[in-house]
Amino acid sequence: MRTLIIAPDTASDAVMTQPLTVMLRRVVAGAQITVLAFSDHAPIFRAMNDVDQVIALPRQTGRLPLLEMTRIVRVLRRHRFEQALVLHDSLQAAILAWSARIPIRRGLGSRSRLGLINRPHDKGQLLKVGPRRPVAERFAHLAFDPSKPLPIRLPNPSLARRNDLDRSVMARLGLADAKPILALCVGIEGKPSRRWPARRWAALVTLVTNAWPDLEPILLGNAADRPFATEVAALSGRRCLNVCGRHSLTELMAVLAQAEAIVTHDGEPMHLAAAYGRPMVAIFGPTDPRLNPPRSPLAKVEWLHHACSPCDQAQCRFGHGDCMSELSSERVFDSLRRQLQSISRDIR
Q: Are strands 32-38 and 181-185 parallel, antiparallel or unpaired?
């Protein structure tokens, strides 16, 4: 079956698509899977072994222009897809699948897309009936009859490494012949309530470098996170390579794939690191790790679960941010040490 997946809009959800591609291969022998994704997320899908082709779209603010929509529809019609799985929660994504004359169009329940999506799934989430389901489970269910539960245990997301690319990226960042890397993902993706304080990050750097002198801390995030990362490095008094704002998604993936261990907020790097199977500690505060945790046996979640958490708000409504600030550096360090010991890995 020739299947088109219209990708979701975030990198985290893109990673959660991978179990769906595995399920499709199991359900239909010889399935051909193509993903339509924005160009900035295309590298994630190219790292999925079950994806045959990626059609990249230029990133747009708002809706795609009519001329671009027409061009995409023509490209999709040439492929003669037999089914479309619409993971992007927008009316325009459903219009693309319908306009491309794809006969079976599956998607998660949405009133705005009824008629365009002719095989809707997960209506209970739309009507807020029953518990919320993890994103990976909702996506993977699209490979099956919506009236039945997932028939088999869901595999964890898995991304393939590209060693040649990884080495070239590490060389560009000045890490080709460096010590083993501890990736510290300090980025918050525009959600200040998820920020672990700079003093906590700095104390963690001190603990790590005292315990493992040969481990090289590297601070990752976007350009807006760079001043915060600079503060972390200054407070620690130790050498930390600050590459915030200097790496693309492809380069972030390369660093995470090569890292000895990772400490991260809840966000895109967390799910990418989990998909590469790296030892990791994930710091949660206002978000709920029971809903969308890092799906990896090598991931450890640290969450204080205060009475006001999870609130899932971008800003702390009480102004104190205790769900993050009261999590100690020592507790995170102990979790990191246990994760590394669990795989019997010596860092020299």
A: unpaired
